[in-house]
Amino acid sequence: MTTDAVNVSLIQRNDPLASITAAAKQYNNWGRWGEGDVLGTLNFIDAGKRVEAAALVTTGEAFSLSQPFDTNGPQKGWRRRTNPVHTMTDTGVDAERGNQGFPHGFGGADDVIAMPLQCSTQWDGLGHIFDRGKAWNGRAAGDVVTSEGDLVTGIETAAAKIVTRGVLLDVGRALGPDGGSADGELPDGFAITPEHLERTIELQGPTSAVRRGDIVVIRTGQYSRVRRDGWGDYAGGSAPGLSFSTAEWLHTSEIAGIATDTWGFEVRPNEFEGAFQPLHQIAIPNLGLFLGEMWDPDALAHACAADGRYDFMLTAAPLPITGAVGSPVNPIAVR
């Protein structure tokens, strides 16, 4: 497969607005779960889906899919996104010296962290992206997100929802230059098409079949590369990622969410002249699809490649931060 296998009828490179308009109309879930819906594609996760996911746990192996949250992270200040700043407010030194004011030798440590909510492994909530002034379910963007936060679809609405079957599609391993190696990496700028996704599923086998209510975790290998070579332009620079032509696949597959090991989910540079993250513009406000970014699937990918089993129970609860449009997350895959 090559990046040339793109639905050219959908991608009009010289007219991005026409492509966005057409995709937004064709792949739209507004009203699907009622006018008052705040969950979007998370509605595909029901009690039966969670029971199905729990049945996948056979060894009890657990994998964190989170990058570290520290000052050595990927952010460079774009749109005021910085790396976490971790500060100790009480330490062992204070305890040793009796500076804490506790009786009978009691001592302790406390700390605080300051960070943008989308500086490392995170979910994009439904209030994060708008399409021509409209938020998820056709609401006016200004009625949804104000200076007080997301008044309708704040990330807290998803606090207890994201427990489901996860599926790893290790596209880097399947289709990268070192295809067949769990260390395979797609080059920056590689646009992952529906054909690439289906070919990966075919190569990985039946446990990779994507079903309604799943969360799909895409490994491109970019995070493996920057962890080895340094961050470079990981935050906002060129990257492998999903092609705009996957909009139909994202819609018809009825997945609950999708996450990648890259900063921005979709291929960068984007496939249109003068566009910025056009697949986000379809996925979040029109499909109601939850997007995860900057996840770390590498250890999980090695385990999956070792035994050929690519599905697992996934828990990925956002912090219930009232009115937030995104949230840090520590996704856990249990096999």
UniProtKB/TrEMBL annotation:
What InterPro entries does UniProt report for this protein, alphabetically?
A: KFase/CYL, KFase_sf
Q: Which Pfam families match?
A: Cyclase
- Give the range the annotation lists for the signal sequence: none
Q: Which Gene3D superfamilies match?
A: Putative cyclase (3.50.30.50)
- Its domain of life reads Bacteria
**Official protein name in the record:** Cyclase
Naturally occurring in which organism (per UniProt): Arthrobacter bambusae
The upper taxonomy is: Bacteria, Bacillati, Actinomycetota, Actinomycetes, Micrococcales
